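Subgroup meeting minutes
Present: P.N., E.W., G.H.
Scribe: E.W.

1. P.N. recapped why we're keeping a running log of single-chain structure predictions: easier to compare across weeks, and new members can see raw inputs and outputs side by side.
2. G.H. added today's entry (66 aa).
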Amino acid sequence: MAFKFKNSKGVEYFLHYRDVTLRGGRQQRIYFFAREVRDNALDAVPAGYQVVETERTGMPVLKKSK
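Output recorded in log:
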């Protein structure tokens, strides 16, 4: 089951990841939220991160925990 976050407006988002190659050839994993479950959905928030909702749009984003 994919990790689900419901924002203050009642819209549900699901957490996903994608491995990308940067210009220098280095691999990096990016995390993003989508309104529907797609390939590469995650079951939980990665260790060291927390979900924060943006004030203006209500979109969830991952932020490194302190």
